Amino acid sequence: xxxxxxxxxxxxxxxxxxxxxxxxxxxxxxxxxxxxxxxxxxxxxxxxxxxxxxxxxxxxxxxxxxxxxxxxxxxxxxxxxxxxxxxxxxxxxxxxxxxxxxxxxxxxxxxxxxxxxxxxxxxxxxxx
Length: 128
Description:
- The chain has six helices and five strands.
- By secondary structure, it is α/β, with parallel strands linked by helices.
- It has a single domain, classed as 3-Layer(aba) Sandwich (Rossmann fold).
C-alpha cells in the first residue's frame, strides 16, 4: 500500500499513542508499504505546538528527525498539481491542512491514514 499519514496519525505513531489503532501501526511498520508525510503536516505540528494545542514528547526538531531519518518516512512535496486540485475541491471540510492532504492523496492515488471520517466524502481511500 501507499500511505499518506494525516497529521494526527503521524504524531500518534511517533509518540506511541494508543489512539492509533494497532492495525494502522502494523500497516505503517510494514516494510512493503510506502509511508508518506506532507510538509503540510510538519507545518501543522509546528503551529499547534506553538499555540499550545499539542505537546510533543520530543523537541520539535528531534521529532522531525525521527520521522524522516529514524522511521524513514518519505516526504511528499507540495506540487502545483496538488494545490490546483484545491480549486475544485468541495467544501465538506474547511481545515486547510486537511484539504491539502486530501488533494495530495487524490493526485497521487494514496490511501490516507486518518480517523477523520469526513474525508470519506471526497471519495478517497481512507483507512482507519
